[in-house]
Every structure is written in C-alpha cells, then in structure tokens.
Design a protein that fits this description.
The chain is mainly alpha-helical. Helices cover about 55% and strands about 10% of the residues. The longest helix has about 35 residues.
Length: about 325
C-alpha cells in the first residue's frame, strides 16, 4: 500500500512537472510571437501595433491551446503560465531594460515582482473557506458526495450551521466543481491562481490584482525610459534587433494586460460594494434567494422572474435585461 501511494505521488509530481514545462514553453512562444509585430510592422502607428498584438495574442492562445489539447494531448498549468510570464518579464528587464532605469524605479519594480511571486504562492496554497463536516474542529472536507454532484446539474442541499447575521455569508456556501468542495462565500474558481476565491482569500485576491496592475504600470514606466534612451520608437525605418523587438512587444503586452485587469478590478469593486459574488451573479437562477416572482400585469398571461439581490436591496433587474447583458 505504501508503494502504491509512493507511485501515485511520483506520478502526480511527474504530471505537475510536465504541465509546468509545457507552460514555460508556451510563455516563451507567446512572447516570441508578439515580438513579430514590431519586427514586421515597425512603420505602423503604436495603436495599430497594439491592435495587431491583441489579435495575434488571441489567435495564438486560442489556436495554440487547441493544438496542445487536441493534437499534442498535453495539459498546461495556468498558475505556472502566470509565474513564467512574471519570470520572463523580470528576466528581460534585468538583462535589457534595467540599464536605462534609475535606481528608485529599479527598486520599486523589483520589489513589486517579489511581492507578486510571494502573493501568487500565498493564494495558490490558501484556504478559500472550505466547509467541513460537523463542528469547526473537524478536518474532513464536505466532498464525500462529489460523485452525486457530478451526476446532477443541481447542487446538493447543504445544511448550514454558520451564523446568518450581518452580510449573510453564513448561508452563501457554494459548490465548486473544479475544487470538488463546498466553499464559503465562493466568488469564482480562478484558473490563473489555481484556487477558488472565497471568503477567506477574497481580500488577498483583490490585493494581488492591484499588485499586478501596479507592477505592470511600473514596467511600462521602466520600458518607456529604455525606449526613450535607445530611440527604438523614433527610427522605424531601421531594422530592430530581437531585444528591441521584445522591448516594444512587452510594452504592448503589458498595456493589453492592464486594460482587461483594470476592467476586472472595477467589476470586483462593484461586487464588493453591492455585496454579491461573481458566482451568484452568473448562476442566480440556481439560488432561490436571488429570484423574485413578479405577478402578471393586466394584459400578460404569465408571471415573470426578476433578479433580486437579497444582500443589497437596491439591486433589481429584469430577466430579459440580465440575459441581454450576458449575451
């Protein structure tokens, strides 16, 4: 039995190493593909290069992911992909960008990179709020009925022994199919961080998001100083070197990251303000407390359901409007 467990652990470690290796290769290929934009479109405007980079990034990640899963039949690790992107940016910064950056900017950016690595490890290993059987002292997760849940679309009824006062998080225990566990205050399962975002690590998640935005903004400042000093943006007619192409492509990459991450942070700030979770917003039809039955008006032949946030009385939205926003 011990040998069987050792073999399983060895197999799991081998799979993890393989996925991390695939993610590392995918990161380098992604960055090299993006460097083709300033290589062949150096005479185009910066906005044109930004649009081309966004299109190329979507095509490469989509088609490359399809080839990886369908043709090569290999799996990658999303947290490793994030980590190796951080490592690639930092390595390129140290080897190329750093020479043109003042000491203060260098210290700030390096400190932010260290913060991201520590934060990524912390949220990867954190407990999002897994609900256990019986009392709070029990260490057995509530996942013995996973097979039943996987075979049905509806979630199992979960008796809740938490207090329902205040924000009502005691009753907001949701099932995550990725983690195969019940999570208190589940917001969503984050593939990039390899963990659920729940009541216990939601604050860490928000802090880490702000950390990514701050680090990317710092890199843009440092890379802009390098670009201004080297003049790579002022001589489009000359053939740039690989390091110069990567300097421009990483700037484009960081801007694209900032755009969606700022929108992502605004969404989560809105959710915090109205006291609702992403999972509740998307799957509100599965949770009765979010449904409000509206009786038919004169001339209507059927009743209507509306979305209602029981934790924020100011939110009320018609089903048709809600579906239109999701479409």
């Amino acid at each position: 039995m011990v040998e069987t467990q050792d073999q399983r652990q060895h197999l799991a470690q081998s799979k993890s190493i393989g996925r991390c290796t695939v993610s590392c290769i995918f990161v380098f290929l992604t960055q090299l593909v993006l460097s083709l934009v300033p290589r062949f479109f150096s005479a185009s405007s910066f906005l044109t290069q930004l649009a081309l980079s966004a299109l190329l990034l979507l095509l490469f990640l989509g088609f490359g992911g399809w080839c990886r899963r369908r043709l090569l039949q290999v799996r990658a690790s999303a947290p490793a992909f994030v980590f190796f992107n951080i490592l690639f940016i930092w390595g390129f910064y140290v080897s190329v960008i750093r020479q043109a950056v003042p000491l203060l900017n260098d210290a700030v950016f390096s400190g932010e990179v260290v913060f991201l690595v520590i934060g990524l490890y912390s949220i990867l290993t954190s407990d999002p709020g897994i609900v256990t059987y019986g009392s709070a002292s029990s260490d057995q997760p509530l996942n013995s009925s996973v097979s039943q849940v996987d075979n049905h679309d509806e979630e199992l009824e979960l008796p809740c022994h938490e207090s329902t006062e205040g924000s009502g998080l005691g009753t907001r225990v949701r099932y995550c199919r990725s983690c195969k566990a019940y999570i208190k205050g589940l917001d969503h399962h984050c593939p990039a961080f390899g963990n659920c975002i729940g009541q216990n690590n939601h604050l860490l998640f928000l802090i880490l998001l702000f950390g990514f935005i701050s680090t990317e903004a710092s890199y843009l400042v440092c890379a802009s100083l390098f670009a201004a000093k080297s003049g790579i943006l002022d001589r489009p007619s000359m053939e740039p070197t690989l390091s110069e192409n990567l300097a421009v492509s990483t700037i484009l990459f960081m801007i694209l990251q900032l755009v969606w991450q700022v929108v992502f942070v605004i969404w989560h700030i809105y959710c915090v303000c109205v006291n609702i979770r992403t999972d509740e917003w998307i799957k509100w039809k599965k949770y009765p407390e979010f449904q409000l039955l509206v009786q038919p008006q004169p001339g209507q032949s059927f009743a209507n359901f509306r979305f209602r946030n029981p934790y924020d009385k100011g939110i009320l939205q018609n089903v048709e409007e809600f579906l239109a926003l999701r479409a």
